[in-house]
Amino acid sequence: MSSLTPPERLARDLDWNLLRTFLVLAGSRSVTDAAERLSLKQPTVSSALKRLEDRLGKRLINRKPGRFELTAAGRLLYDEAIDIHSAILRLGTVIRDVEDEVSGHVRIVMASHVVSPLVDAMLNRFHIDHPRATLSIEIMASRSALSAIAARRASLAICLVMDRSPQLEYRRLFREYFGLFCGPTHPLFGREGVAVADLEGHSSVSFVTDQMGDALRPVAEMRAEAKLDARIVGTSPNLEEVRRMIIAGLGIGPLPLHVVREDVERGRLWRLPPYDNPPAIDVHVVWNPHSKPNRAETAMLRAITDLIDRTPMDDRIYR
């Protein structure tokens, strides 16, 4: 029997779990960050990376103090590994669709402050039209949602967008406006005539994407103009937890105006300045046109894009 060629030997011997670990590493800021995402210990992840590099005979990630980035070989492997990982993820769906072509699963990754009657109407219509399809909705930071779409780990994302990738497709779903709020125990709660200058030095809480270089940059600029304490006391990717910290009195924080209107009316939150020209944030639907969607995913994407096309932009602005 003829001996195996090097590519055939690699295909036979390579541990596919190493590729999965590498994909997480490629989207992380450090080995420690990747270990936390994988729920593994840092030495375990470092060992997996070393084994993969040794097996391929190439350095895949430049990792030095202050530097953690893919090498040229790492970028090539990343592109190939995405295709492999996507194919593995689709196996169950493909087999299920052979048995019953009208079924399928849709995985939506979504920012936590996506509160929109448009989304509710889309989900209702989809379920009525495709009752045998299933779906899951996972809440995560917009940055993580976009990474999931790029890696083809999700069907579509509904989230904020900072920098657009030419590899993905985007449609604006709606626009929301943010304001600053405090809770009942805060010294500014209930005070009329509060000026922006009165906020200076107060502690704050916010979303993890509330940074100058991230999707909530307009909100970060609003906090900076208010001269809140630069040290953010608490952060979360989840709106409910940011809201909880504000109500609990940890500090002043940003929330979408339309989402917390009832909280303000019931005295759980108090809006603070600036009142004029609050920062506007656009929420997008994002998908990967290079993925191979199942029938349910195709139907879901068609449902939401059709709804966007039929709904005037004025009806998709929430103040």
From TrEMBL:
Residues 14-71 form the HTH lysR-type domain. It comes from the Bacteria. Keywords: DNA-binding, Transcription, Transcription regulation. One of its GO terms (molecular function) is transcription cis-regulatory region binding. The keyword Transcription applies. The keyword DNA-binding applies. Belongs to the LysR transcriptional regulatory family. This is DNA-binding transcriptional LysR family regulator.
